[in-house]
Design brief:
Length: 144
């Protein structure tokens, strides 16, 4: 398994993986518009997006966008293929993103989590384990 910079050749497989992840959470699977336009939504703005790829298949993803006028960034779309959870992929994606943001001069990372909390309990526990603290309902932050 490797973490790579997003490539368009993986687009459809990434979208399929995200839909699987949302379905596993019991949500109606839909695609956020930024996932259809990674280059324009992330790279063209100076931000970044990564994929976790195993045997040529996308098993995870994450991206971030800078908060204008600050040294903060918002983490987006950290998804792991449901059958691949609890294998360290999310932690590897997160640490890759955090290191990149720190090198880019970011000082804090913001995360917006879903509600109700009971549905997103894994996300809350995951980010807390990685040093994020709750700043408001469904919002967490980490200084880097």
């Amino acid at each position: 398994m490797e973490i790579i910079k997003y490539e368009d050749s993986y687009r459809d497989d990434m979208i399929y993986m995200v839909l699987q992840a949302k379905d596993a959470l019991g949500r109606i699977p839909r695609i956020n518009p930024d996932l259809l336009t990674i280059k324009e939504s992330y790279f063209d703005k100076g931000d970044f997006f990564w994929l976790a790829v195993d045997s040529g298949r996308v098993v995870g993803c994450v991206g971030y966008s800078s908060v204008d006028g600050t040294t903060e960034a918002v983490l987006h779309r950290l998804y792991i293929k449901p059958t691949m959870k609890r294998q360290g992929i999310g932690s590897l994606l997160l640490s890759t993103a955090e290191a990149h943001m720190k090198n880019a001069g970011k000082t804090a990372i913001l995360v917006h989590l879903g509600e109700p909390r009971e549905v997103w309990f894994e996300s809350y526990a995951f980010y807390k384990k990685h040093g994020y603290t709750e700043t408001a309902p469904a919002h967490m932050k980490k200084k880097i």
